[in-house]
Amino acid sequence: MENDRFEAYRKKFYSYLEKKRLSRTSERFAVMREVYDYGGHFDVEMLYERLKQKKYHVSRTTLYHTLELLEECGLVCRFRPDSGGALYELAFGNAPHDHILLPESGECIEFSDSRMEEIVRSLEAEYHVRIKGRTVIFYAEQN
After folding, report:
1. Geometric angle at alpha carbon 87, from 102 and 89, rounded to 5°
2. Nearest Cα to 69, choosing from 23, 29, 16, 9?
3. Domains contained in the chain, CATH given
C-alpha cells in the first residue's frame, strides 16, 4: 500500500517535470524521496543535512528549485513562520489541516477542526469560487 502511494507521488512529479520539459535527475529524485520519507515539517537546512548524512550531494540551489517544483505540482506545501524562513510539508495525500506556530519554541502544532471546513464552504458560496487548498496559520505564545 505504501509503495503504491509513493509510486503515485513519483508519477505525479515525473509527469509534471515532463510537462515542463525538465529532466528527471538523480538529485531531484533524491530530494523528492527525502521529502516523501520525512513526512513532517522541515526547512531547507534540515533537508540539506539529511541528504548530506545519506551521502547525497545536492546543492542548496537544487534543493530550493526542486522544492519549488514540488510545490507547483501540489506535492509540497510551503508556509513562512515569523522567523522569516520557510517551512515545508508533504501535501500529497494528507487530509486538510491547519497550524498553530509557537515562534518562541519553534514548535508547530497541526490540528483539524470541522469548523474550518464550514468556513471554506461559506467562502465558496459567498464568492462563487472553488477553494482548492488553504494555508491557515495561527501565531501563538505559550500561556
Report:
1. 110
2. 16
3. 1-94 (1.10.10.10), 95-143 (3.30.1490.190)
Residue written as cell 483539524? Answer: 112
Q: Which residues contact 82 (CB under 8 A, 6 or more apart)?
A: 101, 103, 139
**Which residue is it, cell 517551512?**
87
Q: Which amino acid is at 53?
A: Q
* 68 within 8 A of 105, measured Cβ to Cβ: no
Q: How many angstroms from the chain centroid is the CA of residue 37?
A: 12
pTM for the full model? 0.76
Alpha carbon of residue 49 to chain centroid: 18
List the chain pLDDT tens, one digit each, 143 residues. Answer: 678 889 999 999 999 999 999 999 999 999 999 999 987 889 899 999 999 999 998 999 999 999 999 999 989 988 765 556 788 888 876 677 788 888 788 778 888 898 999 999 999 999 999 988 777 888 888 88
